[in-house]
Amino acid sequence: MTKPVILNLNKPQGITSYDVIRKWKPRLKQLGKVGHFGTLDPFASGVLMLGVAGAQRLNDYIHACLPKTYLAKGKLGIETVTGDLTVEVNQQDISDYLADVIGKFDKTFIQETLEKKFLGTYMQSPHKYSAAKFEGKALHQWAREGVEIKKDAVARQVYTIEVEKYEFPDLWIRFSVSSGTYIRTLFSDCANELGTIGTLEHLIREKVGGCTLDNALSEGEWKQEEIPFLAIDEVLDFDSLIMAEKESHLYRNGVRLKQDRVAKRFSGSLNAPYLWVRNEAMDILGLAEIKEDHIVSLVNFSN
């Protein structure tokens, strides 16, 4: 059985996340199914992770456990229906306050203002032109059909805000956030907090957990002969349970085992309730959690 692996790519601007999968599928088809972890819009670039040979089944755990870092460049004083500059501007702030006051803000003031408002728990509704789903269809599909779906706000986490640069009306902000945070909405909310409107011009996803732009494969390297796959436990460094041969066989066949039948447990770096299940050769058999002293399988790579 082929081991599940992850590939960290630097998606260029101008193509969809699924375009990336289409480019890689012919090369990876002998290994098994391919999926990506977290859509990047065509106007955005940066870290796009592919799951291969079963690793794509870890999508929910990537999102739940790994923070994401983005560098957003936007413009103050304008707004579009999509929240980015892929469409025409439909609203403009023409007030004297924009240039005379907001235009003279310094980086420190902007940083302190945004940190005070947005650091920590941040309630956010998905943008109407996002990939969030309603009745099985993305919100942006509903919006392009003239139907605006408003979903309830969901709690997200903003871990850090760094104002990288400000040259009015252009503002660069680096955000570190929990998965599911829509940066175009967050940037628009930041502009509102500063007293105006704003829209994204460009977005770079710099980091997902330990997968960064520095260790991502750039488009010019996609055809190189050797593919630098990452082991799944390099990306998700959970605690591990090691099972003896008999228990490993039972686990692979879907038998629910008591925790006291595990030979050993050792720790990873992520504070999470999930556990890798390994055999004595240290091969990963699947992902599990402990419930009422039983090992409950979440992902079984033997299936």
Task: Give an overview in words.
- There is one protein chain.
- The chain has helices at 17-28, 59-65, 96-100, 107-118, 139-144, 183-194, 232-235, 245-252, and strands spanning 5-11, 34-37, 44-52, 68-76, 78-79, 91-92, 120-124, 133-134, 137-138, 154-167, 170-177, 198-208, 211-212, 230-231, 239-242, 257-258, 264-266, 275-278, 284-291, 294-300.
- It is α+β, with helices and mostly antiparallel strands and 303 residues long.
- It folds into 3 domains: 5-65 and 211-233, 2-Layer Sandwich (Pseudouridine synthase); 68-208, 2-Layer Sandwich (Pseudouridine synthase), CATH 3.30.2350; 237-300, PUA domain (Archaeosine Trna-guanine Transglycosylase, Chain: A, domain 4).
- The strands form 4 sheets. Strands 1, 2, 3, 4, 7, 10, 11, 12, 13 and 14 form a 10-stranded mixed β-sheet that branches.
- A hairpin with a 6-residue loop joins strand 2 and strand 3 (44-52).
- The N and C termini lie close together (11 Å).
- The model has no long low-confidence stretch (mean pLDDT 90).
